[in-house]
Design brief:
RskA_C, alpha+beta, four-stranded antiparallel beta sheet, five-stranded antiparallel beta sheet
């Protein structure tokens, strides 16, 4: 592949490399190009600078204990204690801020790739969903103009053939709201339910469910794998 004359592709790869979402063989090939391409190195440095600036603007916020108690009471055994403890303490750690910044950068990238510049949707909220190791694996974009939720999934996310990923909005009182399942467990667009971005939503979560989604209309029945909160642009 020759990327020297493809400016949009160069910028996209530089952004994904800086965010850490470019992995495996693609990342190794990109690093080989970096060694011989000064302008490409400058593009990566530019993206890294943007993300660092975003991190400096964010201040960690520790939600009140009643938020977590309410969510734990509603979800019960669905959310495993180690994962939940990770989420409850992450907001007070520096890397929690960096993860939010990376998610914001990933959203910017997703919006830029979703449509030509003239048709870029008016995105007002984003959420970077991370696993228990604080690795961002999904970016959810709320496109209010077209009433769509854009879900972008990292390529290395693997799901058993008999299972599906389901997106939820969790309110501050711990009540789950299903926002839809991910067809083929890959990147997709879902209808934007007004409840997804309502003021009472504390976080978004992805659970692993049987094919067709959770059999319980009141919440997840499988483990919660990823989570993240909305950030307003």
């Amino acid at each position: 592949m020759n990327i020297r004359d493809n400016a949009p592709l160069r910028d996209r790869l530089a952004a994904e490399y800086a965010l850490g979402t470019l992995r495996g063989g693609a990342r190794r090939r990109f690093e080989a190009w970096l060694r011989d391409d000064r302008l490409l190195r400058a593009a990566v440095a530019d993206w890294q600078g943007r993300l660092a600036a975003l991190a400096e603007l964010q201040r960690p916020v520790t939600p009140p204990a009643r938020v977590w108690e309410g969510i734990e009471r509603r979800l019960g055994p669905v959310v495993q204690p180690p994962w939940w403890q990770f989420w409850r303490t992450s907001a007070a750690r520096p890397w929690g801020v960096l993860a939010l910044a990376a998610g914001a950068g990933a959203l910017v990238l997703a919006v830029r790739l979703a449509a030509p510049p003239a048709a870029t949707p008016r995105t007002q909220q984003i959420a970077a969903l991370s696993d228990a190791q604080s690795q961002t694996v999904m970016v959810v974009t709320a496109d209010t103009r077209h009433r769509r939720l854009q879900v972008r999934v990292a390529e290395d996310v693997h799901v058993p053939a008999d299972r599906t990923l389901q997106l939820w909005a969790i309110t501050r009182t711990g009540k789950p709201r299903s926002l839809g399942i991910l067809p083929d467990n890959r990147s997709t667009d879902l209808a934007l339910d007004a409840r997804a971005t309502a003021p009472d939503v504390a976080l978004l979560a992805i659970s692993l469910e049987p094919k067709g989604g959770s059999p319980d209309p009141n919440g997840p029945t499988g483990p919660v794998l990823y989570k993240g909160s909305w950030a307003r642009l």
